[in-house]
Amino acid sequence: SQQGEEDPQALSIQEGENATMNCSYKTSINNLQWYRQNSGRGLVHLILIRSNEREKHSGRLRVTLDTSKKSSSLLITASRAADTASYFCATLLSGGYNKLIFGAGTRLAVHP
Amino acid sequence: SQTIHQWPATLVQPVGSPLSLECTVEGTSNPNLYWYRQAAGRGLQLLFYSVGIGQISSEVPQNLSASRPQDRQFILSSKKLLLSDSGFYLCAWSPSPNTEAFFGQGTRLTVV
Fold first, then answer.
1. Residue B49: enclosing H or E segment and its boundaries?
2. What is the pLDDT of residues A35-71, one digit of tens each?
3. A13, B60, B105, B108: least buried by Cβ within 10 Å?
4. Are the Cβ atoms of B46 and A90 closer than 8 angstroms?
């Protein structure tokens, strides 16, 4: 079953612009993670934010988490053509479950 | 350092044939292991996860099964493939439930 839902499904921007992707989820979580997937490849972990954290930064990435709204956002600043990929949020459910559940993803296209 | 190996990269199998996909992890012990399936342009569907040898949790009842005969080996199997089993299969591991997951490069399975 899908726990997370990303929004938008697809995003097309120009190099240098910022890209914002949103993720909503349904049940209580231990942490929320963002991953990137280049076409036809495995996923690469970008950033993990724990349920007691509200914001986290890593290079050009900024992630926020609002547990009251059960939502998260990923901001990529000053995007580059190389950022073109699909981005997924994944939630680790709380309650002792070791299940990492992924959303449907956002396809980001950054045009030179 | 830890590495994950998943093979084969591509596979074309006739309907009704058996399946065995293997995933091994090196450089760590007692990893959490995951099998996911991804339909074209879609998110990842969790199929199985394992927290230890012989401990397999199934998320999706279907004609697939998983086994963990050794600590760092995770096998996805089917006795008789269906057309609907086609997809991109990804194996992943994590050191513990509260950490990031590392993905293999995936197996693209086409059932004909």
1. strand B44-52
2. 999 988 899 999 999 999 999 999 999 999 999 999 9
3. B60
4. no
In degrees rounded to 5, what are phi and psi of residue A102?
Answer: -100, 150
pLDDT tens digits, residue range B56-112?
988 886 789 999 999 999 999 999 999 999 999 999 999 987 889 999 999 999 999
CB atoms within 10 A of CB A67: 15
CA distance to partner chain B, nearest, from residue A47 (Å):
8
Q: Are B63 and B79 in contact (CB under 8 A)?
A: yes
Dihedral angle computed from the Cα positions of residues B75, B1, B88 and B17, in that order, rounded to the nearest 10 degrees: -30
Measured between beta carbons, the chain A residues lying within 8 angstroms of B43 are: 2, 88, 102-105
Q: Cβ–Cβ contacts within 10 Å for residue A72, how many?
A: 25
Point out the residue among B42, B44, B105 whose CB comes nearest to the CB of A41.
Answer: B105
Cβ B86 vs Cβ B69: under 8 Å? no
How far is Cα B103 from Cα B93, in angstroms, rounded to an integer? 7
**Closest partner CB to A104 (pick from B42, B46, B51):** B42
